[in-house]
Every structure is written in structure tokens, then in C-alpha cells.
Predict the structure.
Amino acid sequence: MSIFFAALSALSYGAADYAGGKATRGHNVHAVLVLSQTVGLVGIFVVVLVLRQPMAPGIDLAWGVAAGLSGVVGLSSLYRGLASGAAAIVSPTAALFGSAAPILAGLLLDEMPALTGWIGVGLALPAIVLLSLARDAGVRFDRQSLLFGIVAGIGFGGYFILIDRTAPDSGFWPLASARIASIIVVALAAVATKSSLRVSRHAMRPTLLAGTLDMAANVFFLIATRIGLLVTSAVVSSLYPAPTVLFARAFDGQRLGPRRILGLVLSLAGVALMAI
């Protein structure tokens, strides 16, 4: 059941990335992030109120804040890397380190998946990289781009690890504290760079959709880790480039190259093995 929720998380993350990409195309990134994350914050408040979840202990809210800050570091590093470096280096590096960090943390916490689970992880890791490969032709190795990718991946992996440390009885409140922390940081960055926080009308719908789907992905991931292992939940959730690629193929007519087709096949096989 854990793998099912992790797969829903990957699907939601992938759809959120696709919608967010549409919103930020020719638009201010800070504005899109602040609005989309505010939408997610409102959404999680609605969820905890409907479910009548009691306020979480301070330690769990603190874990949430730490997770939110780690996620913001990852996101800002990813965007800086994509803006100043090569996507063909930054994206797969971030994806690989984002999934490798939770695997290491899981091992340190004595999480031991079954043999089929480890085989599935072994198939999923190259799948994540293949699905994240950009089409940059003739790209040369760039140490700065590699560094941005590593920091981004560690930031994303740190989010998975830190949010997993929250207690089950804390409900979804840690997601709210994580989102509050990230909104504050992004808003301060926008003020520091004198960026406008206004979202144009054509970007409004995909921005709202991205915020809703991203929070749904976080909810699914938190459920997955609480009923299963961090190792497999994080790896399956990190397969989010797969639905992003499929959405781009379905709605934008983008062709799937042989590497991404191989990545899709490996990801399906990996998820199937981890679910056994």
C-alpha cells in the first residue's frame, strides 16, 4: 500500500511540475512560487480542519520547518542551475542525489527492503536519470552546473528525510509549517531581488493547479512513509519525471526519445518489484 501512495505522489509531483512549467514560461518565478505555495498552504489547512486533526507538537512542526527550508534550497539551486548552466547536467544530477540521499538515510535508520525491493530500487535509479535527461546537444561538462545539481538534489532529498521524521500522530500539520517556511523564504528572496509578485491572468490557472497538485503530492508522500519505508517511498516518488514526460507527450506533442522510453520501462519494472 505504501508503494501505491508513493506512486500517487510521483504522479502528482509530475503533474505539478508540468503545470508549474507552463506557469513560469515567460513569467516571474518568484511570483508563481509564492502563489502556488500559498494555494497549497490553504489546501492543507482545509484538510487538517476537515479531518479535525489536533495541533501537532512543536518538535514535529520544527521538523516541518526544516523540511520546508531544505526544499527551498533545492528548488532555488535547481532554478539557478537551469538558468546559468546546462539542464542536461543539472536535472539528472538533482534527480539522482534527490533519491540517493533518502536511501542513505534509510540505511542509517536500519530500513531494509526485501531483495525484490532492492532490485526495484536498482532499476528505478537509472530510470530517474534517464527520464530527467534534457535534450541539450553538444553540452560540455560544467563543474558549476554539477554543483548546482548536487545541492538541489540534496535539498530535495533532505525534504524527504526531514518530513519523514515527523510523528504519525502529528497529522498533516508538519506540511503546513513546511509550506509557511518556504513561502517566507521565497517572498523574502523576491523582495531582495525586487521581483514582482503579480501573476498574470494567463498564468493564474496553471499556477493554482501546480500549487494544489504539489501539496497533494506531499500528502501522498507523507502517508507512504508512515505506512512503509523511506527508502522505497522516496525512490518511487522521485520518479515524478515520468508523468511529466507523458503529459508533455500527450498535450504538447513532444516526442519520446529512446532514452526516455527506456526510463519509462525501467521505472515501471522498478515500481512493480518494490510493490511485491
The chain has a mean pLDDT of 88. Residues 58-84 form the longest helix (27 residues).
